[in-house]
Backbone:
């Protein structure tokens, strides 16, 4: 079975779409750089490459490529939850929070992630992924439900 067929089979057969099952699914895929690297895209309109490699009624799978010194926009994921598997590299996950109905999120904390670690994205996660290294970062994302209605915030 090919890589995309394995992803489809694994994700379409989850008993429920919750945080625990998403993490177990990504772990069961035994993701390797060689498999995922075929789906890496170079940046176009953003600082990073973003490639949706699978989407169903229940899930969306995305491969992100953060070149050296690149970052994502500060964003949330709407009503979606998910998990991010670090295929290659190290990055900083800069977390933000909204206080007192503020229109712009304020800095909260920074987490470091490295190869083979998993970051869980909750419904209230507001973050920016930043690659402060000279090596590229490749991440594999699974979201449920598929991303829709998330907010991006301008850089401060």
Residues:
């Amino acid at each position: 079975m090919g890589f995309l067929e394995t992803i489809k089979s694994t994700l379409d057969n989850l008993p429920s779409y919750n945080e625990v099952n998403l993490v177990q699914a990504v772990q069961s895929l035994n993701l390797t750089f060689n498999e995922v690297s075929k789906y890496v895209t170079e940046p176009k309109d953003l600082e990073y490459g973003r490639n949706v490699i699978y989407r169903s009624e229940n899930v969306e799978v995305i491969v992100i490529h953060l070149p050296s010194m690149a970052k994502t926009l500060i964003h949330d994921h709407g009503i979606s939850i998910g998990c991010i598997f670090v295929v290659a590299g190290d990055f900083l996950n800069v977390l933000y929070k909204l206080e007192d109905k503020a229109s712009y999120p304020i800095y909260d904390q920074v987490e470091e992630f490295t190869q083979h670690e998993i970051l869980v994205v909750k419904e209230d996660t507001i973050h920016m992924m930043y690659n402060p290294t000279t090596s590229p970062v490749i991440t594999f994302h699974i979201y449920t439900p598929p991303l829709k209605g998330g907010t991006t915030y301008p850089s401060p």
The CA atoms of residues 70 and 131 lie 6 Å apart.
